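Below is how a single chain appears once it has passed through the pipeline. First comes the sequence as given, then the structure the pipeline wrote out for it. We keep one example in the README because the format questions we get most often are answered faster by looking than by reading.
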Amino acid sequence: MTIERTLIVFKPDSVARGIVGEILSRFERVGLKIVGTKMVNPDTDFYHHHYEKIGTMITRHGQKIFDTTVEMMQVAPVIAFVLEGIDAVAVVRKMVGSTESKSALPGTIRGDYSHMSYAHADEQGIGLSNILHASGDSKEAALEISHWFSESELFDYEAAHEKFTQTKKKK
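Resulting structure:
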């Protein structure tokens, strides 16, 4: 059993639409536990670290994509959460769906709450509205969590549901 932590960031489109609680409840219903949360409005340097130093966005996709993304991320505050659970990174990635909302399957968060394509975003010169960011793998999650949260902002506690969602084999 691998208990791990992952970062999700509700982007300005989900915050402005008032759907954060509805989506967050989906993560809680599968047994993931919230161990950190905060609402912030990061500056460009903070996003540069997140998207380039950790995620290599400029390296992979170019400066224009980065600039457009940061512009979109700064139109309103974002809400960051650290979730904990068994294989949390993979579980969250599966629940969130494809990065391009148009390609996300129904039943995934992006498939249920957004539908924008890369082509439309490019045509309009805007960032891709796709509800939230989720860590791509365990290494990225650890780096992102330490960038967004200090140790004192993360909590270790036992949730009531853990005996059902994180059962251990009795010896």
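Strands lie at 3-10, 33-40, 78-86, 132-134.

See the next section for the split statistics.
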